[in-house]
Write a structure and sequence with these properties.
Layout lengths: L9 H8 L8 E5 L6 H13 L13 H7 L6 E4 L17 H7 L6 H5 L2 H5 L8 E5 L7 H12 L5 E7 L7 H4 L3 E4 L5 H10 L4 H10 L4 H7 L2 H15 L5 H5 L7 H21 L9 H10 L2 H17 L6 H15 L4
Parallel strand pairs: 1-4, 1-5, 2-3, 3-4
The chain binds zinc ion.
């Protein structure tokens, strides 16, 4: 069957689709990062557009399903920041990671919302639903969000707008109030491990990767990549060396994605705190003794201050003004945070 449904989404998807004629005009799909919310949203869209659904779900075989899987169904649009669209044909190499990050917008712009005005107002091509998917919804910039509000206030008939986010707190209250919220569930550990196995992740790697991903299987799949793991290990060795020049060492991670660097620092600090308080670690089990050594010497309030700095950086991670500067600041602050009082 030609429809992508993650096993832990089957039941909630069918439950939503069982009331397909009574769905509100906008759903806000929220939940943790890395659990497949966009996959969920696409499966919902395909099932609504399918012309012969099977027990609520898309058949995967009709003409509408065919267009949907080839990304050219006339009654479906997907909006995301330019930086997240596939960069096919974009082979221009640059050694400056900042230049690369500036090149494509990490926000959804008002032009993109205006660009779908015809799609939203003209009658549908197939006399069925019209579905607009927007993700990650927190990347809508202020103008784009205000422009979208008008559509949310006066939605065309038989139209479903799907907003997807893992940072629901960052959405405008006016947007949230016009959507019905649906929490997309995360799988339990057994289900997540079984799914990773179907993605050809070896059992031993699956367990480590799932731990680092805090139980989120799609993140774990990315973490199971050998290149990613070797970068992570090298970075952890820098963090583990209490007498190292962290800033200098950080320069060798210039090519690492800023979001990864922030995740590594957050999970590492979380492990240091946990180790101090309980003697256990959650994310970086392979670094347990190094983490315990740092935990024994740190001044916890300094570490908590650093944690909140990391949380603030996390919010800017998709549209950093200067990724290199941010990365350097984080490493300087790290040195300060782990210096004994
Ligand atoms: Zn179909």
């Amino acid at each position: 069957m030609n429809i992508d449904v993650l096993p832990w989404h089957d039941a909630p998807l069918r439950s939503l689709l069982s009331r397909r004629e009574k769905l509100p005009h906008a759903l806000l799909l929220y939940g943790r990062q890395g659990i497949g919310k966009v996959v969920f949203a696409r499966a919902l869209a395909q099932s609504l557009l399918c012309e012969s659904p099977q027990h609520g779900l898309a058949c995967g075989a009709c003409a509408a399903c065919g267009w949907f899987t080839q990304a050219n169904h006339p009654d479906f649009r997907e909006l995301m920041p330019e930086a997240l669209t596939a960069d096919e044909g974009d082979t221009e190499a640059t050694s400056d990671p900042d230049a690369k990050e500036k090149k494509k917008s990490k926000e959804i712009k008002v032009e993109q919302i205006r660009g779908i005005a015809d799609f939203m107002t003209l009658s549908t091509h197939r006399d069925g639903f019209r579905v607009l998917l927007i993700h990650p919804a927190e990347t809508l910039n202020a103008n784009a969000a205000n422009s979208l509000l008008k559509t949310l206030e006066e939605p065309p008939p038989r139209t479903l707008i799907l907003l997807v986010t893992d940072q629901i707190g960052r959405l405008l209250a006016t947007i949230k109030s016009r959507c019905q919220r649906v929490m997309v569930p995360a799988p339990d550990k057994t289900t997540a491990l079984a799914w990773l196995k179907t993605q050809r992740v070896a059992d031993a790697d699956a367990d480590t990767a799932l731990g680092q991903a805090g139980g989120a299987p799609l993140s774990a799949l990315a973490f199971a990549d050998a290149d990613y793991q070797s970068q992570r290990k090298a970075f952890m060795q820098v963090l583990a060396a209490t007498d190292a020049d962290h800033l200098a060492a950080a320069q060798s991670f210039e090519k690492s994605d800023l979001a990864n660097v922030v995740t590594w620092l957050q999970t590492w600090v979380n492990d240091v705190v946990r180790s101090r308080l309980t003697g256990e670690v959650q994310y970086h089990c392979d670094q347990k003794s190094a983490i315990a050594r740092i935990a024994a010497r740190v001044h916890l309030p300094a570490l908590f201050r650093y944690e909140s700095q990391l949380r603030q950086t996390r919010r800017a991670v998709h549209h950093p003004l200067n990724a290199r500067l941010l990365r350097e600041q984080l490493l300087i602050s790290y040195t300060i945070a782990i210096t004994p009082a």
